[in-house]
Amino acid sequence: MITILSRYTATVAVLVVAIGSRVASSMNNIVPGRKCCPVDRLYDPEARFCKLSGTDVDEYRQRLVNRLDRGFRVEANVSFNMTYYPPPFCNTTEVLVDVPAEEVRGLMEAHPSPIELPPDYCFDLTPSDELVGRTCWPRDQYCDRVGYTCVNKCCPAEHMYVNGLMGWVECKNNEMPFTLSTYETDADGSPAGRSNNTVLPYWDGHVLHKFQTIESSFMLTTDGNLHLIYEGEEWIIPNTGYCLEFHAGDGPPEAADLLVFVYPNAKRPVSYIFWVTYPPSVICLLLTLIVYATLPYLRNAHGHYVMFYMACQLMDFVGIMIYFLVYIDIKSPLCIPIGYFFLFAILTTCCWLNVICFDIYWMLRYNNSTNKNTSKSVRTILYHIYCWGFSSIIVSTGYLFQHSQNETLRELALDIGEYDCDIYELYHYGTIIFLWIPTCGMLTANLVLFLLTAIYCSRIKSELQKFRQTDSKTEIFLVYKEREKILANTI
Fold first, then answer.
1. How many Å apart are CA 163 and CA 184, to the nearest integer?
2. Which residues contact 350 (CB under 8 A, 6 or more apart)?
3. What residues have CB less than 8 Å from 102, skipping those under 6 apart?
């Protein structure tokens, strides 16, 4: 009995080992692979997008496996396990390309009996039942080929822009094909006829939210440049100055529009609005300064303040003209100094306007009392200390915040030189603290001073009116004064 049991146990053990080895052998003959599209979709090379296969999922999967079997000439005991993965993730120097059918056949010939499919490739079927592969290739090699145009995509593959918190845009999954036509160029570099080039989108690794959205029609030329109309002028943006992306906003992804997102340091064309505003303003300010400096009766204390106000405004306008006409790259060492120069010019202009308003109120309100004991030179010195000192403190504090080691202070900085050489975002914390609060405070003070001056003048006028009605001598004095004016005008 013991002998029978031992023989039975040995037989079962042999069967278990045999079955286990057979299962292990069959498991070793399963070749894993990457499927480019989900299980119910096939790849359309014309739209470069996955679309519904229109057939049964199991039938479609079997057709793909049979196509792989025939192409790679595998043995009968080898089977493919195709699992869907997102497209191969290309780094910033690569572009996702479709491998032509002949190159797929060459890949099959190089791997006649694969242990596994190449891990950096994905495979799928086309509507014509052709086997297609997708992989990452070096961008500088593939984009130079005839028949291809590479274009920068703002988000990674299969992502698009949607509105997020604080009005910023963020990248989220989408199911829209990135299709775009290209155009040939004529001798002048302008778009001509439509080209048959295939557009290959790539992602440069940056997801920035501080782009300027251009909601305008544009044309992509075969050299990768973008041609669009901006403020009535043709703007040619090189391939390093923009990115393209679908923007759904708050609506459904199906209603998204393909928009241009221009990098902050891209040089914009000078429009006619610039030529009819800034150059005439500079000329008028310069002529006014010459008049104030030439005529003796204008060279008083108040004229002195007006001249400084116009000089600061002239400095601001000239700087803006230079900034628009001369391209200054964001990486240039002049970028940050120019940004803080603009801030200093704006603040000093507002300060001198504030001084003018205050000085008018002071002269009218306290002319009979305090003004006699207060020297004009002392007030002028105090005004200079206020204008230049206040502006310098604001600019220096903003610079220290931006270069501070404290993260909280850096968040409150102006970010000049980060996205643009000027103040780029109008509602950032730094812009509010260092620009809007000082300027709005001074403008509010000017408005208050104007109202107080108007009220005071109205009160003096009413008192004079009462005095004129009760004092006959005042009437005679006003009559003689009016005659004097007539006589002076006659002479």
1. 34
2. 438, 439, 442, 443
3. none
In the chain, the N- to C-terminal Cα span, in Å, equals 152
Report the C-alpha dihedral over residues 279, 285, 286, 288, rounded to 10 degrees: 140
Residue 127 near residue 63 (C-beta atoms within 8 A): no
- The torsion angles phi and psi of 125, rounded to 5 degrees, stand at -100, 150
- Strands of 139-272 (E only): list them: 148-152, 159-163, 169-173, 182-185, 191-194, 198-202, 212-214, 218-221, 226-230, 233-237, 242-247, 257-262
Q: Extract the tokens encoding 351.
A: 């300060």
pLDDT digits (tens), the chain, 491 positions: 333 333 333 333 333 333 333 333 344 467 777 888 887 788 888 878 887 777 677 777 778 877 777 766 666 666 777 777 777 778 878 888 888 767 777 776 666 555 556 778 888 888 887 888 888 888 888 787 788 888 888 888 778 888 766 556 778 877 677 878 888 888 777 788 888 888 888 887 765 555 666 666 788 888 888 888 776 677 888 887 888 888 876 666 666 778 888 877 677 777 777 888 889 999 999 999 999 988 888 888 888 899 999 999 999 999 888 887 877 777 778 888 888 999 999 999 999 999 999 988 888 877 654 444 456 788 889 999 999 999 999 999 999 998 888 888 888 888 888 777 887 677 778 889 999 999 999 999 999 999 998 888 888 777 766 665 555 555 655 655 565 555 444 44
Whole-angstrom Cα distance, residue 148 to residue 144? Answer: 7
Helices (H) and strands (E) in the chain, counts: 13, 19
β-bridge mates for residue 49, sequence order: 44
State pTM to two decimals: 0.62
Phi–psi pair at 429, nearest 5 degrees = -55, -45
Whether the CB-CB separation of 431 and 414 falls below 8 Å is answered with yes
Give me 334's structure tokens. 């002049």
- Which string of DSSP letters, residue by residue, matches 112-161? SS-SS--TT-EEEE-TTS-EEEEEEEEHHHHTTSTTEEEEEBSS-TTEEE
Long-range contact list for 50-58, CB < 8 A, 24+ apart? 50/124, 53/125
